[in-house]
Structure formats: structure tokens, C-alpha cells
Amino acid sequence: MIAHRLLNDRGQTLPIYIWLTGILLFAAFAFFAFAQAASARNGAQSAADAAALAAAQDARDELMDRLGAAVGEDQGWLDWLDGEIPADAGAAAAAQELAAENDSALQGGVQQVVSNGYPGYRADIQTNYTVGDSIIPGTEGMQAKAHAVAVIQPRCDFDPDADPEKPVELNCDGEIVNIDPEDFDPDDLPDASVLFSVHLAE
């Protein structure tokens, strides 16, 4: 009698065990699918960050070239210290290169934007790779997307009444830079990071 009852209990437990095992396996596969999606999303965000930063850094280099050419030649050279991006800055190529290095592609190039009062670039990215096969239908063809904005922030203050034809002292977050338009060599300019910082805004 007791043996018969034990066999009965064992027979009832087996379906429950199989059912619980199936639930656990499904949960594991679902978790893996979400992890795949999160990994693709993180990859897309990294690519977007890199592309936006590359665009802003390229534009900063252009700013430095324009500033170096203007000192001593153009009385409006101090205006370049505001960090305004030249309309013809070729930042898109730099952004596309960084996107490609991260196995992604720019969507519609890069856009000039203003964020928190600073000029910059927005990069919209789509990965070249997909999320991959999973238990969730459609993920095998799904590509991750992300966007990022990087800005150029001027770091230098100077006397608003400064004469652009005479020596000007710049205070760049505590680092003093002296520029004399009458005795100026573009190679005398400090590193671009001294005059302008580039950072992600969103």
C-alpha cells in the first residue's frame, strides 16, 4: 500500500518537474535575447558617441586653423574664440569613419546643433550587424539604433574691450595664453584642447 502511494506521488511530481524545467529554460532563453538586444544597443550607442565626438573634434581643428589664419590679418579674430562652427566644416567624413570602425553607419550624415548654448553635432547611428537569432521572432533582422550629441565649449575669457590689433591675454580655465597679432606665428597657438573642450552633451 505504501509502495503504491510512493509510485503515485512520483508519477504526479514528474509532470510538475518537466513543466518547471520548461519555464526555467524559456526564462533563460528570454534573458539571453534581452542581453543580445542590450549588447547591440550598447554597441550602437558607443558608435554614436564616437561619431559625434569625431565630428566635433574635426570642427574644432577647423576652428583652430581659421583662428590661426585670422590673427593679425582679420580684426574679427577674437570672434573665433566663441567656438562657432564654420558652415563649411567637413565633419561628416570624420564621423562616418568612426562609425564604420564601430561596424555602424551614419543615418543622414551629421547635423549641426546647439545644445546648452554650445555648438556641436548630432550623429544618428544604425549598426551594420543585427541582434541575432533568439526566441523572440524578428530579432534576426533587427539592427540597433542610437544617437549622440557632442559640443564644442570655449574655454577662454578675455577683456571684452581688448583691441584685436594689440596683445591680448586669454584666461583659458586658469591657463594664460598671450597672443600678439603683430608678432604671431600660428604654431605658437596652444593645443586645441586648451582653447576649446569637446564633450558629449547627450
Roughly how many Å apart are the termini? Answer: 72 Å
Q: How do the strands of the widest beta sheet line up side by side?
A: 1-2-3-7
Poorly predicted regions: 2-7, 28-33
Radius of gyration: 29 Å
In terms of DSSP E residues, the strand content is 25-35%
State the order of secondary-structure elements, H for helix, E for strand.
HHEEEEEEHE
Number of strands: 7
Mean pLDDT: 81
Contiguous helical run count: 3
Count of individual domains: 1
- The best one-word shape is elongated
Helix/strand/pairing category: alpha+beta
Taking the sheet with the most strands, its summary is: 4 strands, antiparallel
Proportion of residues in helical segments: 40-55%
What would your notes on this structure say?
The N terminus is likely disordered. 42% of the residues lie in helices and 27% in strands. The protein is elongated and about 95 Å long. With 202 residues, the protein is of the alpha+beta class. The chain has one domain. A hairpin with a 2-residue loop joins β5 and β6. The strands form 2 sheets. Strands 1-2-3-7 form a 4-stranded antiparallel beta sheet.
